[in-house]
Amino acid sequence: MDHDERRRSITAATWRLIAAKGIDAANMRDIATEAGYTNGALSHYFAGKDEILRTAFEHVFEATNRRIDEALGETTGFDALRIFCREVMPTTDETLLEARIAVSLWQRAMYDEHMDGTNHRSLVSWRARMAEFLEQARVEGDAGDFDVDLAVEMLLNMMMGMQILGVLTPDQTTADRQFEMLDRFIAQL
């Protein structure tokens, strides 16, 4: 196993810990145990816990973006917007896992400059992509006249809320309920 593969395995172990037990469980000893390494071995791959958590946070966005790109293909307009949103919303085991990790790490992102930068870049990119899909829907004749920036912000807030509620109240914020909210929102445009 090479250096990058070991970093990925440690990041994956960190994900599992955070998803199962929360951010407080992600101490160096437990991360090492979960990854199958000694505590001291982690220092060969990461400078410390902060770097591991930063990498885990970056990986959430990277994994989501890869999945979005694969699912989108050549899709445009509202269909592309639905695909995009569904890959962010916590409606599958994979997206729920990512939501658990993101929600756990958001508090750190408020105070960690690197994590804040990762979050900021990702949300700028997501806003631009959603705006592009909405503009495509207009060109395709599927959308009425509305404020694209406001629609993007409303949709992004709805998806982030779904991540929180999908983690905290999964019995109420079910996948079907999330899909219904998304479809109703899009129908209003």
Automatic annotation (TrEMBL):
Protein name: TetR/AcrR family transcriptional regulator
Residues in the DNA-binding region annotation: 27-46
Top-level taxon of the source organism: Bacteria
InterPro entries assigned: BetI_C, Homeodomain-like_sf, HTH-type_TetR-like_transc_reg, HTH_TetR, Tet_transcr_reg_TetR-rel_C_sf
TM region positions: none
Species per Swiss-Prot/TrEMBL record: Rhodococcoides yunnanense
Key words of the record: DNA-binding, Repressor, Transcription, Transcription regulation
Domain HTH tetR-type as annotated: residue spans: 4-64
Signal peptide bounds: none
Pfam families: TetR_C_6 (PF13977), TetR_N (PF00440)
